[in-house]
Amino acid sequence: MLPEREILALHRAITAIRSVSGEEAALADFLGDLLRRNRVTVARLGASLLATVGEGPVLLFDTHLDTVPPAPGWTRDPWEVEVVDGRVYGLGANDAKASVAAMTAAFLAFREADLPFTLALALVEAEETRGTGTEAVLAELSRRGTPPEAAVVGEPTGLDIAIAQKGLMVLELVARGEVCHAANAAALGAANAARRLAHDLVALEAVDFGPPHPRLGPVTLEPTQLRAGTARNVVPGEATALLDVRTTPGLHGRGLVERLEAAVAGEVRVLSERLKPRETPEASPLVDAAREARPEARLFGSSTLSDLVFMEGIPAVKCGPGRTERSHTPDEYVLESEVLDGARFYTRLVRAWAERLVESAA
Hints:
Layout: H1 4-15, H2 25-37, E1 41-45, E2 48-53, E3 58-64, E4 82-84, E5 87-89, H3 97-109, E6 118-124, H4 132-143, E7 148-153, E8 161-165, E9 167-176, E10 180-181, H5 185-188, H6 193-204, E11 220-228, E12 234-235, E13 238-247, H7 254-261, E14 267-275, E15 278-279, H8 285-293, E16 299-302, E17 316-318, E18 333-335, H9 336-361
Parallel strand pairs: 3-6, 3-7, 7-17, 8-16
Antiparallel strand pairs: 1-2, 2-6, 4-5, 5-18, 8-15, 9-13, 9-14, 10-12, 11-13
Helix pairs in contact: 1-3, 1-9, 3-9, 8-9
């Protein structure tokens, strides 16, 4: 592993480089140069990087370069890194540049090692928006004929190990009525789309999504945006609600939509269902290796999205330094000790994975 001072210097340097989604190129340039100086093979995929060492089946380390824009309320310059009493302040310091620095340090520790597998490092763009960075990396690995055997997604989890993650469906509930002057609606018996939508939203409260998942809890549905009407004195002919639905393994897609359709009078439109729930069995060799690398880690299910959603058919966990509650907040920070703990954890995980491959081949 790199010396601790170099890991911390790397973390400060990358935190200082602006990389709001869509602006990751400068950070990709910086890290690509660093990897090439260390004699590592690097492919550039847009503003994402894919580096590999070793040969054989692929263990993928995946984390993201991009950040959200700074939230209102910052009391310091989001791109001016400050270190105060072991806290590193800066936009993305926690989410997810702590994982970028820790994964990169662990990866470089094995650049000249004789690994019984390929260790791949993906530093990707657009995780906070479209997820196209990880999709491009997985497509490239498949094109090479080396899809990952397992994957570790770097996100701030306090180094606890997420072995399940909720999916996301974005739905639109549409109610229709009759357009007329508001003063005449009662006399005409005109159906008000806004009122119909309100009834349907109440009806959704009673939908049975089945038993909660043991790690992820229940499916949740939240109306987040409502739209109706063109003027104060006109009864709306259409009213819509956007629904944010967090799904669990076993209830995603058409089966879930059918339950909603049975409860409402309006139309349910699917706007997005590509972000599916994921789960890796607790008995998976990857989970076993991660627990060996950090025996005190808690196994849990995550309700927040990450690029874990793209690991279809791949045993994968989400784990990284930092705390999720600090993400997307003013004065975001991570502890220097957390960054170093992350680098140690990823290094131990690689060694534990290598031991399992050697044992399985014996």
